[in-house]
Write a structure and sequence with these properties.
heterotrimer; A alpha+beta (about 270); B mainly alpha (about 240); C mainly alpha (about 600); A: about 270 residues; alpha+beta; Immunoglobulin-like; 10 strands; C: about 600 residues; mainly alpha; Cytochrome C Oxidase, Chain A; two-stranded antiparallel sheet; globular
């Protein structure tokens, strides 16, 4: 009796918790609402299966509990029933997998008009690089990293001279423009994670990884690191500001290019001694 | 991970075949009664130790398949620079083949109960294996003399790591071989017992020779060419 | 190895050999300490695993205290926190679950259930335990080493695992961790060979494969998988040890640490992840399959009904075992590997859900029209189904590549894997201990303490991990010392975290009742008799309880039927033991 009752309570409690819970994902601010939809479909299917299985179990426990003189039925297997259950499960799985793969195909296909930007992670801060007026990022190499050149941009590559370097500061993005985020790390694994954008990807030293998205809502969003990167992991925060086009241009004017930074630092070097 | 997947596929294929041999499709609840209740026992006639060794060799096979997988995955990077193949590896390979042949002779001799011959073959096998190990050490010395150190680049690291792992397995085998050789002087031991020991040693040696041949192909860089050739044929 | 094998008779299979040549112990030391009896080794394995598991339990309290009440406890520094989570994860997955299921239950149950006198290589079996113990000691030693244990997370991802930004990375922590794992794998391989070969060669007359209890099937398949999967971890550990100690660059690319160029260059961190998860995913099933097997037997015995669809259950175990080798990269969807792999691995991962679902259906269908005795083992089995279904279904979120993207590396993942491979298998372990304790000791565990332990553990564990999914949905990443100030995380998440911590402490203390029960019942438990659950499988049919070294007295049992003849129409009782020739009379000289 009591066990069956508690099994029912577990199901009811879980459903109520889900409905009443104030804890849900933050409102989306990118084009990936498809991901949310797929997740909601999965929630419905799995929720139904969970409730059905546990309630069935609760019923069995109540109905077929041991009483004096009761005897179990003898039934080694039922091919028909097992086939139906298998087919049913396969259909349910396909109903989740198909939209998943469909959206994944979009996730990995970067649109041609996406602007490339670069995020460079290190223990424990975020740096960014935007292509300058030529729209192209210069080559980089972690062996070139030094105090003067924190991102390891190749000074011999002309494409790199006008790159805009943002060291340990906030990133701004124009709203409604697709961006391809190139991800680089100079020390250990990190993961560029903005919950509102839904997309995320690890950054691996020695490799350039990427993902793409289109910011759809202006505002300030928090950047977190989502791959354990040492003791400072939880404190590795940053901010992304999605601006209107005018605000974005205004901010862009205030940033310095790689060439300007190099000059500044060379001047500083000369002054020092 | 292609090498290990092929290896797992082979093991899985063998396992499924074995399971089918053991009637996993039957309906056990229908087999009551004395007649059905005492089926001919389905335990194999093979000595248990041999089956144990077989499974152990499968584990070793998985280990080296994984080394090879890692090697291939790393090899695809553009900065891959394999160290030159020390010439002595050719001689070492020959010596290891010799050791395997000697152990094969030992198996034949012990089956014919020729103790003197068995002893001689075992000692020859052991000696050839020691020569092989010395040769491998010489190969390491040649490489480091040429400036190819363990930590120079990943290709070098793999060379030392893989040959070292293989050498350690051979060394472990030598302990068993030593004990088996010592047994040939024990007159009281039943021949079956000795025969089993010799057969186990021989199986282990043949398998490690096979692994070595695979590794040799891998380290010589032919495996990469082979893969490239296959790709060309496919496209 | 050769010395310990039974005497060989040309052309006669070992099962036909009446008496195995056992190494019979001569004194106290060889009986209880350096024993070659699989049952003693099983108890040694289980005892050691539970002892080190207690350490992991305490570590989980400490990390929960930090998460529930951040800043309250000064001694939990970020360094210490990462060391806690790393050691907790590693101990629970490898040193507790793997060792307890395979080393503990495998050793105790395989020989008894297949009607063998012992494992086929008892000496190697003994070595296996002592090497495992050594691995545990090395692991514990890292707590006392300078710099403390490693804090790299149980996945030990390079490069951070061996750099100074991680606790233990440039000290002894990571070295001892890797050494301990290498030892564990060597020890496990020795034991694993035994479990597999005993099932292949040690079965008694009439014990065909399809007459084996599902427990044996689960442990057997899991061991085969472990033998093939652990080498991947071995390779990864050896290569990382080389990187750390000898300066090679297998996994270490050129990198700049704290503004300083390191001498590494050319290694691939992703390579480590592939090797790790090539082991890591089968590992999930290495823990799950024995649990599947055991729970099938618990349900069948206590519902007095044959397991529904036995053949399907066997095939599902084997198919899951095989498929689990081609799903590993679903742990790496956002690792930066080639995105096209996502299609393949999402498909294989969701396909594996089908045989798993079949198992669940067959468990609940076994309950249908059964005669359900709500004993403590049965309660644990039911609770297993609830938590396993819950955790398995959230696996469909994480396995479906694009749904995984927002959820990966959040607390949702932590909640998922704790539910599915933490709580669920541990509930099975408890159920199994309540079930087989009478066989091991001859006495029943106390019923009231058992009831208390069960309800607090089940409801409490569900209350810990079900809400935790929602912490992850909000977006809280895993492995965070504290959430800190975040605009998108409502402060109420902190209240939820505090609630989870309180639940975790309560559940933890309930385990003390269980431990007390284990010792108390040893002395004061009700006498059980040989077969208190009226079960059919062979281990309940031993001539004496607890079974002595050699298990079967003068003659090994002969098996006449499968392991699930419960409530057979026309039978005198509601169960027929496997060695009962009913309805025929025993053939002279065989029973």
């Amino acid at each position: 009796m009591v066990p069956a009752f508690i099994l029912v309570l577990v199901v009811l409690g879980s459903i109520l918790f889900h409905i009443l819970s104030p804890w849900w994902w933050p409102p989306i601010a990118s084009n990936w609402s498809y991901i949310d939809h797929t997740l909601v479909i999965t929630f419905w299917i799995t929720g139904a299966v969970f409730s059905a299985v546990v309630l069935f179990m609760a019923y069995c426990v109540y109905r077929f509990r041991h009483r004096p003189g009761s005897k179990a039925a003898y039934e080694p297997e039922s091919k028909k029933l097992e086939w139906w259950l298998t087919i049913g499960t396969a259909v349910g799985v396909a109903a989740m997998l198909a939209p998943g793969l469909y959206v994944w195909a979009q996730f990995v296909t970067v649109p041609d008009d996406a602007t490339e930007i670069e995020v460079v992670a290190q223990q424990w801060q975020w740096n960014y690089r935007l292509p300058g007026e030529d729209g192209r990022l210069g080559k980089s190499d972690s062996q070139l990293i030094s105090f003067e050149n924190p991102l390891g941009i190749n000074p011999d590559d002309p494409n790199g001279q006008d790159d805009i370097v943002i060291e340990a500061s906030d990133l701004h993005l124009p709203v409604d423009k697709p961006v391809k985020v190139l991800l680089r790390s100079i020390d250990v694994l990190h993961d560029f994670y903005v919950p509102e954008f839904r997309a995320k990807m690890d950054m691996v030293p020695g490799m350039v990884t990427y993902f793409w998205f289109t910011p759809t809502k202006t505002g300030t969003y928090e950047v977190l690191c989502a791959e354990l990167c040492g003791v400072g992991h939880s404190y590795m925060r940053g901010a992304v500001l999605v601006d209107t086009e005018e605000d974005y241009q205004a901010w862009l004017q205030e940033q310095s290019t790689f060439a300007e930074l190099t000059d500044l630092r060379n001047v500083a070097e000369e002054v020092k001694p | 991970m292609s090498v290990i997947l092929v290896f797992i596929l082979v093991v899985a294929g063998f396992s499924f075949w074995w399971l089918l041999q053991h009637r996993v499709l039957s309906k056990p609840w229908l087999e009551h009664g004395v007649h059905a209740a005492l089926p001919e026992t389905d335990i194999s006639n093979m000595p248990t130790a041999k089956i144990g060794l077989g499974i152990f060799l499968a584990v070793i096979g998985a280990l080296f398949a994984l080394f090879a997988s890692a090697y291939f995955m790393r090899m695809e990077y553009s900065d891959w620079q394999a160290p030159p193949l020390p010439r002595i590896l050719w001689i070492n390979t020959g010596v290891l083949i010799l050791a395997s042949i000697a152990l094969h002779c030992a198996v034949r001799a012990v089956r014919e109960r020729r103790m003197g011959m068995t002893r001689l073959a075992l000692v020859t096998g052991g000696f050839a294996t020691l020569v092989f190990l010395t040769g491998q050490l010489t190969a390491w010395r040649d490489l480091s003399a040429g400036g190819h150190f363990l930590d120079s680049n990943p290709a070098n690291g793999f060379f030392y790591l893989i040959t070292g792992a293989h050498g350690l397995h051979i060394l472990g085998g030598l302990v068993a071989l030593g004990r088996t050789t010592a047994k040939t002087w024990d007159e009281t031991l039943p021949t079956e017992r000795l025969r089993l020991s010799v057969e186990l040693c021989a199986a282990y040696w043949h398998f490690l020779l096979l692994i070595w041949l695979g590794l040799f192909v891998l380290l010589a860089g032919w495996a990469g060419d082979l893969v490239a050739l296959c790709r060309q044929l496919l496209t | 190895m050769v010395d310990a094998t039974p005497r060989m008779h040309e052309g006669i299979s070992p099962a036909e050999v009446p008496e195995l040549e056992l190494y019979h112990p001569k004194g106290w030391w060889t009986t209880y300490v350096f024993s070659q009896d699989a049952k003693i080794i099983a108890i040694q394995y289980a005892g050691t695993a539970m002892a080190i598991g207690l350490v992991a339990l305490v570590l989980s309290w400490l990390m929960r205290l930090q998460l529930g009440f951040p800043g309250t406890f000064d001694f939990i520094t970020p360094d210490a926190y990462y060391q806690f989570i790393t050691m907790h994860g590693m101990i629970m997955v490898i040193y507790l679950l793997t060792a307890l299921f395979l080393g503990g239950f495998g050793n105790y149950l395989i020989p008894l259930m297949v009607g063998a006198r012992d494992m086929v290589f008892p000496y190697v079996n003994m070595l296996s335990y002592w090497i495992y113990l050594l691995a545990v000691i090395v692991l514990v030693a890292s707590f006392f080493a300078p710099g403390g244990p490693t804090g790299a997370g149980w996945t030990l991802y390079p490069p951070q695992a061996i750099l100074s930004g991680t606790p233990g990375g440039q000290d002894w922590g990571i070295i001892l961790m890797l050494a301990s794992l290498i030892l564990f794998i060597i020890g496990f391989t020795m034991g694993g060979l035994n479990y597999v070969v005993t099932v292949i060669q040690g079965r008694t007359r009439g014990m065909t494969l399809m007459r084996m209890p599902l427990t044996v099937w689960g442990i057997f398949t899991a061991t085969v998988m472990a033998l093939l999967a652990f080498p991947a971890l071995f390779v990864a550990c050896v290569m990382m040890l080389f990187d750390r100690l000898l300066g090679t660059s297998f996994f270490m690319p050129a990198l700049v640490e704290m503004g300083e160029q390191l001498s590494y260059g050319g290694g691939s961190p992703i390579l480590f992840q592939h090797l790790f998860w090539f082991f890591g995913h089968p590992e999930v099933y290495i823990v799950a399959l024995p649990a599947f097997g055991i729970v099938s037997d618990l349900i069948s015995t206590h519902a007095r009904k044959n397991i529904f669809g036995y053949r399907m259950m066997v095939w599902a175990i084997v198919v899951i075992g095989a498929l689990s080798f081609i799903v590993w990269a679903h742990h790496m969807y956002v690792s930066g590997m080639h995105p096209w792999f996502g299609f393949f691995f999402a498909t294989t991962t969701l396909i594996i859900a089908i045989p798993t679902a079949i198992k669940v259906y067959n468990w609940v269908l076994t309950l249908w029209r059964g005669d359900i005795h709500l004993t403590i083992p049965m309660l644990f089995a039911l609770a297993f189904i609830v938590t396993f279904v819950n955790g398995g279904l959230t696996g469909l979120f994480l396995g479906n590549v694009v749904v995984d993207v927002p959820l990966s590396d959040t607390m949702f993942v932590v909640a998922h894997f704790h539910m599915v491979m933490g709580v669920a298998p541990i509930l099975v372990i408890f159920g199994a201990i309540y079930h087989w304790y009478p066989k091991i000791t001859g006495r029943m565990l106390d019923e009231w303490m058992g009831q208390f332990h069960f309800w607090v553990t089940f409801v409490g564990a569900y209350a810990i991990f079900f809400p935790m999914h929602y912490v992850g949905l909000v977006g809280v990443p895993r492995r965070y010392v504290e959430i800190g100030e975040s605009a998108f995380i409502p402060p109420s998440v902190q209240d939820l975290n505090a609630f989870i911590t309180v639940a975790a402490l309560i559940v933890g203390f309930a385990q003390m009742v269980f431990l007390f029960n284990l010792f108390w019942s040893l002395r004061y438990g009700r006498e059980a008799g040989g077969n208190p659950w009226r079960a059919t499988s062979l281990e309940w049919q031993t001539p004496t309880t607890p079974p002595p070294h050699g298990n079967w007295g003068d003659e090994r049992p002969v098996v006449y039927r499968w392991a699930y003849d419960y409530s057979v129409p026309g039978a005198p009782q509601d169960f027929i033991p496997q060695n009962d020739p009913w309805p025929q009379k025993a053939v002279a000289g065989t029973a």
